[in-house]
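Practice problem: predict the structure.
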Amino acid sequence: MRDESNCSAAFRAFGLGAALVLAVLFGLPALSVHAYADDNEPAATCVDGDGDGFVDCSGGCTPGGGDVCGDCDDSHATVHPGAAEICDGLDNDCDGDVDTADSGFQNPDPVDNIDNNHDGNIDEGFGYCVFATSGPANECKTGGHLECVWPPAGGPTTVDSRGTLTCINNTNNVITWESESIGAGNCHDGIDNDCDGTTDVHDTACQSAEICDGVDNDGDDLIDEGFSVGTVCSVGQGVCQRSGIVACQGDGSAACGATAGAAKKE
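Answer:
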């Protein structure tokens, strides 16, 4: 039987080129050549593809100076052991859990009609946000709350240290800007249609001179002022005099609600 230990020494002495010659001379299989030739070859250095200081050593490579084994995704610098979990669809801390499935990155106040984070607000998720705007200068704003949705869908997104969060509005009630004025015919609907902070006759575009019509026309929170509506009045003279109450007329004026008696011959 051939003593292959001597062959091994020969391989180490002459290197891989000499080992191939000896393999031919002694009839050794190629696998034996590689096994002996690799004995003294240093392990490859792991490449840190994303530059985060962590490498994937699962292939048998050796980490370079300062690098640490354990990276589960060497294509994203935000992914490595000990990284903060954020909303990006990745397992940032390499613990097997992604986004809000990770115990370290849970929705602080999910939609359940409960103030889970005890901040005095209910169902605000990761915080309140502007879901939609409307108007010439975006005066009307529809609110929403931030959630971690991946891939992002359903509303505008906010990117910060928590990742990419999506603004969600579960009411389907989006505020739409409308001109608020007498001409628009919406000065008595109880809605701030143009989102300027004033409603109905408190909006200057809805104000006009006060008339006697049972409403506040000039926005001073007084109705039919200056027309003495509801006071006692009288019409006619002598036996024809009659008493009544001042009331508004169809033309915006006010008049006594009594009718003078008919004159009689004496």
